[in-house]
Design a protein that fits this description.
By secondary structure, this protein is mainly α. The chain has helices spanning about 1-25, 35-50, 50-70, 70-95, 100-115, 120-124.
């Protein structure tokens, strides 16, 4: 039963990061309302330095890996850096809009837990 739950969570995470990663490349979702000036300045600097583009590519690659379950354990670890940075951005600069970032972090933690046997060799 738990494998079905983790499969469902993996698909939700995959769709989540695919949509938001593609949005960083094509900007089809409406912009976030009510961002502080500091958050907007930081977000703008990330856009102009092409860091958001790199983050979008990583999210799309992770989403594809999670959908196909190929290299999903590796991409879950790589995606954790995106998840933590997203939460930290919202904690420090944009607390009212933190809910999707926390959902991303929770789903990523569930994916890491699901693939925990893949990391035993690395952590021994």
């Amino acid at each position: 039963m738990s494998s079905k739950i983790f499969t469902g969570l993996r698909f939700i995470l995959a769709i989540f990061v695919l949509v938001f990663g593609a949005n960083k490349l094509y900007e089809f979702l409406p912009p976030i309302e009510g961002m502080s000036t500091e958050a907007l300045a930081h977000f703008t600097s990330l856009e102009t330095s092409k860091i958001l583009l790199l983050s979008g590519v990583v999210e799309i690659a992770a989403g594809i890996a999670l959908l196909t379950n190929k290299f999903a354990a590796l991409m879950s670890v790589i995606l954790m850096s995106v998840s933590v940075n997203t939460v930290l951005f919202h904690v420090v600069l944009d607390p009212p809009n933190i809910a999707p970032a926390l959902a991303l972090l929770a789903l990523n933690c569930a994916a890491l837990y699901n693939y925990r046997s893949s990391y035993k060799v690395l952590l021994s």
